Amino acid sequence: MKHTELSTKQDLANYLRCDVAFLEKAIDEDYFIRNMDTFDPEEILLSSLKGNISVYRFNLRKKGHNGGYRTVHRIWTAQLNNSLKILNSYLTQIFKPLEIVHGFVKGKNIKSNAQAHLTKKIILSVDIKDYFETITEEMVKNGLMSLGYQENISLWIAKITTINNQLVQGFCTSPTLANVVTHKLDKDLKKLCAKDITYTRYADDLYFSSDTKEIPLKNITLLIEKHSFILNNKKTKFMKRGQKQYVTGLTTFDSNIPRISKQRKRNIRLEINYITKFGYTAHAKHRLVKRGEDPNGLDFFNKIGDEITLTRNRLYGWLHFIQSIEPQFAKKYYKKLNDVGKNSVLTNTRALEILLQIQSLQNKS
Q1: Distant-in-sequence contacts of 77-80, Cβ < 8 A, 24+ apart
Q2: How far apart, in whole angstroms, are the C-alpha atoms of residue 135 and residue 316?
Q3: 70, HSE (Cβ side, Cα atoms, 13 Å)
Q4: pLDDT at residue 344 in the model
Q5: Could you give the CA distance from residue 260 to residue 257 in angstroms, rounded to a whole number?
Q6: In angstroms, what CA-CA distances link 219 with 112, 188, 207, 214, 226?
């Protein structure tokens, strides 16, 4: 059955491959929500046995200097999780965002987003404040209706994909639904920019650039507010050529490709070269002391192994990310790290044993 032909709860249940009784509960009742920091598996299990639909939430620290936390929700009840995955699969087939959208779109990413703004005379970066949380059940319903879902079906889907009348981060459907809801704004902003200004969007980050025309921040702001969003003014930034220009975290000074910032590459290069020269153990000791750990403390050497693991994971994580942006840089430093790993695992283990023995002798003397 086509999505435009769905008309009853039984139709929707079949569409989402779930029981109609389960669907009715998801539509009509609040989810059983618990915080991860007080997470009790037994409590969740008992709740599930009672037929409740369970969701747990937790906070993740935001990246950047401003800090803060974002609230994330994860679905515990398998049937809801499966149904939303099925729904999201349908939505990604039905909805095709404009070419200027790069977030949560297959085949696009931060690199493709930055590519559109290379070597521009001026770049404007703006951020939609509380993007997901601003999108209400009503906005989701209207967005689904624009895709051809009937009004009652759209309302029921909106109810099962929102919590407390808003989209939440963590549901697999939220990014797609956010793009659906923002589609009209994208069209209006693209029309405003016309030929002289390049516009792209990556989730809640909007970028405008031009070589010839002043970028009308006031008109952009009014359009965004017209669509029920507001800007986080603290993050609004004009970046002129000759100054640092970043789009989705990548520099845009090179006319061929976006790049990782020189500072980031320099830091990674220095750290890996230090490890290559002195080994993981010396590097871990240096980092621990720099953080204020007492090198003469009883548990200092016990922390070295953990620090080595964290360092390896962090550096390999960065190189994995850089691989998709600047593969030659990543390849070079992957090799350096891999060579250190081959040559130093046993050496570092033995060094730890010796250091522990020395510490033991020092404590006895």
Answers
A1: 77/48, 77/52, 77/53, 79/18, 79/19, 79/22, 80/18, 80/22, 80/26, 80/53, 80/160
A2: 36
A3: 14
A4: 56
A5: 10
A6: 26, 11, 14, 12, 10
d(CA 168, CA 362): 55
* HSE, side-chain direction, 13 A CA sphere, residue 57: 14
Q: Is 165 left (phi over 0), alpha (psi -120 to 50) or beta?
A: left
- Look up the pTM and report it: 0.87
Distance between CA atoms of residues 163 and 136, nearest Å: 9
What residues pair up with 329 in beta bridges, in sequence order?
Answer: none
| pLDDT(273) > 50 | yes
Q: Measured between alpha carbons, how far is 160 from 190 in angstroms, rounded to an integer? A: 31
How much is the pLDDT for 335?
94
Query: pLDDT tens digits, residue range 42-72?
Result: 776 777 677 789 898 998 887 765 667 889 9
Q: Give 115-138 as a 3 state SS string.
A: HCCCCCCEEEEEEECCHHHHCEHH
d(Cα 224, Cα 181) in Å, to the nearest integer?
Answer: 12
Please, which residues bridge with residue 61 across strands? 69
Angle at the Cα of 282 from the Cα atoms of 280 and 287, rounded to 5 degrees: 90
DSSP one-letter string for 37-74 = GG--HHHHHHHHHTTPPEEEEEEEEPSSTT--EEEEEE
Whether 314 has a pLDDT exceeding 60, the answer reads yes
By three-state DSSP, how is residue 35 classified? Answer: strand
Helices (H) and strands (E) in the chain, counts: 14, 9
129: left (phi over 0), alpha (psi -120 to 50) or beta: beta
Average model confidence (pLDDT) across the chain:
91
The pLDDT of residue 342 is above 70: no
């624009």: which residue's tokens? 146
Using alpha carbons only, what angle is made at residue 11 by residues 9 and 15, rounded to the nearest 5 degrees?
A: 115
CA atoms of 238 and 117, how far apart (whole Å) = 13
Q: Of 120 and 341, which is predicted with more confidence?
A: 120
